[in-house]
Write a structure and sequence with these properties.
Chains A, B: Keywords: CBS domain, Cell membrane, Magnesium, Membrane, Metal-binding, Transmembrane, Transmembrane helix, Transport. Two copies of one chain form a homodimer. By secondary structure, chain A is mostly helical. The first copy, chain A, contains 22 helices and six strands.
Chain lengths: ~475, ~475
């Protein structure tokens, strides 16, 4: 019955996005929690995917969350923990009975356990690791020995490797006789005698071939080996760029140590996106809707503080021209327009640059051409909007020279916004600083300072 | 030899990002183009992946591009076209000899041809479709009958489906005897007699099982069927949320018509992200570094124009208080700080909201709680930075009441920025407008207008 309702709702209620949690299910679950009715709760939760249960837990209040977790109890699946936002994961772990937690964790793949424990404090980490069987614990500890955000942390250690001389029949027999195959695998990896990966054979090709076919005849054209120390963002880029499905991971000596599958790379790509978009807006990249008010305020305060400093800097520029403004108050009325247009153009160029750096579209190869292009774009839009604004200001205040001043100031500000917007991200990238993280305040400072300085400076020079 | 250089460079030149095109290779290729040396060109290009060749073509100048394409000639691979940015795809197609183009297109999978032709003008589309074999042309035309950006356009039509009663042996025999298996497939899809998909069996499980095992015993827990008319953004969300590798696509009657694989979903996720990040910055989402100056300027002009209007609106507010500013020029010096801090806080909240809507974390379920939370965050940071700025203004201008006015104005602006930043995206989403597209100008207008009005209004009321 629950499944029927699940499937009906996307049609019957067009206001909800596809795959978002259905309100009636949520209401029924919260009702069961309220009533303390474990059977009802389990019945409603049963058809939900762990990722959806995690979303549900993130969306309800902290007190409902605790009661739900405690009532759900033995049914609690380890995958829910993996899917949970870090900000409330600790809270949920604390609400779970230690035995349930141990069971939940034991069911997880070792790469999911790594993901779970890597950000924990040592004592909490010890609790989770203590719940694991010895072999799993060693696997997790080995993974943790790789740098954070590296391919070594992302990979699963279970691989299906085959010597180069094997046939399709050898591979099939090997797999049929294996007691424990990886949960997910899409390739048999051919390795040389030193365990260096030399090629991938997709399972589809093996399926379709006769037993006597040598595996090496079925090897894929595209084959990309990933160093275990490579940054996970680069791994995600490689999967997306080369349409990889799985790729072998090798140690410093080039020996096979694991495999990364595309679903993990897709998660990383999504996280990188989240990081970019949050950083560009000056929000702490790990913030989430389930943060407390204090955490959320703190996660935004740093950027607001930097913005305050740059805004004060811009105000100091205005202060230099206080006398000029005193003589013509129209300048105070118009000056925010120049700064605002500059800030906007700077943000546009900066975003294009940050994205192009992330996708490797902006390189040393085309850097000069892109800089010239951006400045030309700035000059062109500066001319168009400078002229437009000159007309507006001319009609508004009836002072032809004021119109000329704002038009010229707008042109200068647009060009410097473009220059700042492209050069600053490139410079930060060269300095190995994430351009998304730090470009904003620099670009805005430039556009504000140039905007006010150009407008008020030209005004005091030409008008007074 | 070329491969050696490729592999050495990432180590020897730490300034380049992993997987970015190696400068020496690019220089050698451009040298070969310059010299008109086809053999050299082919030798340097041979080890490159089509995606990298596409990036190369995007990064060089238009004249180099034309000469390279014409010199490379017969070696030109259809996949390069698929990987190319739309803005220069037409240019490259125009530079290709019609016969070469026809050959290149014939080698592509039908879903790649769909991707290639869907944005073309009718005459150019006819040229490409004319080059295809009949069966392929029909497949492409059928795909084009689905709405743009739908699962039907994204899917590949070739599937491996099996009746529910089949065993592992039946499936293997069927695949061995098939003349044309799909390029990529990861599941055998179990279907009922009406061709409705009922379950997925991964190839790995089939490999590891004995021939007599019924396929239905190996069915995956997670199984998600995608309607052909579903939006591709929702498809990408489902793949990421449920860790799908491939999913069957069904028509209105629930019959299997194709399959979508995770690599396509990953590309869509990446494109959706690009769209969000560009739209949030007010850049036309299809703009790229290879646009001409005029195209790029045009792609940013709309947003700049909207920003001009809102900036003029804010200036009208200032103009209302021209007399007040005339009496105390310090107001003109300080007012941009209030507006700038408001704009920043509004952008932060708006970005969090846009992202949370995209990830289905912000729903009707928790909307009220999130709005209250954001306003509390705004109030908290408003208090902190209002107090800080009051101190700065007090010391700067020595007028205690001015300090009180800016502190209070800052608090009000921060709260309304938070309110606007969360409510506007939610409202647009409810109206079926992409919140990333249109939130920016509205939020900035609110923060500017409220900022100037609160600061100057309070000043004229309290100070004068």
């Amino acid at each position: 019955m629950t499944e029927d309702i699940d499937q009906d709702l996307p049609d019957s209620d067009h206001e909800e996005a596809a795959y978002s949690l259905d309100r009636r299910t949520v209401a029924a679950i919260l009702g069961a929690v309220e009533a303390g009715d474990r059977a009802q709760l389990t019945e409603w939760m049963e058809p939900l995917h762990p990722a959806d249960i995690a979303d549900l837990l993130e969306q309800i209040s902290a007190s409902d969350r605790r009661r739900l977790v405690q009532l759900y109890d033995r049914e609690f699946d380890g995958d829910i923990l993996s899917e949970l936002d870090e900000s409330i994961r600790e809270e949920v772990i604390a609400a779970l009975h230690p035995e349930i937690l141990a069971d939940a964790v034991r069911d997880l793949d070792s790469d999911d356990v790594v993901d779970l424990v890597e950000d924990m404090d040592a004592p909490q980490q010890a609790v989770i690791l203590g719940a694991l069987e010895d072999a799993d614990r060693v696997a997790v500890q080995q993974a943790l020995s790789y740098p954070e955000y590296s391919a070594g942390r992302l990979m699963q250690r279970e691989t299906i490797a085959a010597p180069e001389h094997w046939t399709v029949g050898d591979a099939i027999d090997f797999m049929r006789n294996s007691t424990e195959l990886p949960e997910q695998f899409y390739h048999v990896i051919l390795v040389d005698p030193r365990m260096h990966p030399v090629g991938n054979v997709t399972l589809g090709k093996i399926m379709a071939a006769y037993r006597a076919t040598p595996l090496r005849d079925l090897v894929e054209d595209m084959f990309q080996v990933i160093p275990a120390t490579q940054d996970e963002a680069d791994v995600a880029y490689a999967f997306n760029q080369y349409h990889l499905i799985s790729a072998p991971v090798v140690d410093d000596e080039g020996r096979l140590v694991g495999v990364i599958t595309i679903d993990d790379a897709m998660s990383v790509l999504d996280e990188e996106h989240e990081e970019d978009i949050m950083r560009l807006a000056g929000v702490h990249e790990e913030s989430s809707l389930s943060d407390t008010i204090f955490e959320a305020a703190k996660g935004r305060a740093l950027w607001l503080f930097v913005n305050l400093l740059t805004a004060i800097l811009a105000s100091l520029v205005i202060d230099m021209f206080a006398e000029t403004i005193n003589q013509m108050v129209a300048l105070a009325v118009l000056m925010p327009i120049v700064a605002s247009m500059g800030g906007n153009a700077g943000t546009q160029t900066m975003t294009v640059a940050v994205r192009a750096l992330a996708t490797r579209d902006l390189t040393a190869q085309n850097a000069m051409r892109v800089v010239v292009r951006e400045m030309s774009v700035g000059a062109l839009n500066g001319l168009v909007f400078g002229l437009l604004m000159a007309l507006v200001a001319g009609f508004w205040f009836g002072v032809p020279m004021l119109a000329a001043v704002i038009g010229l100031a707008m042109l200068l500000t647009q060009i410097s916004a473009a220059l700042g917007g492209i050069v600053i991200p490139m410079f930060l990238d060269r300095m190995k600083i994430d351009p998304a993280l730090a470009s904003g305040p620099f670009v805005t400072t430039i556009t504000d300072v140039v905007g006010f300085f150009a407008f008020l400076g030209l005004a005091s020079w030409i008008l007074l």
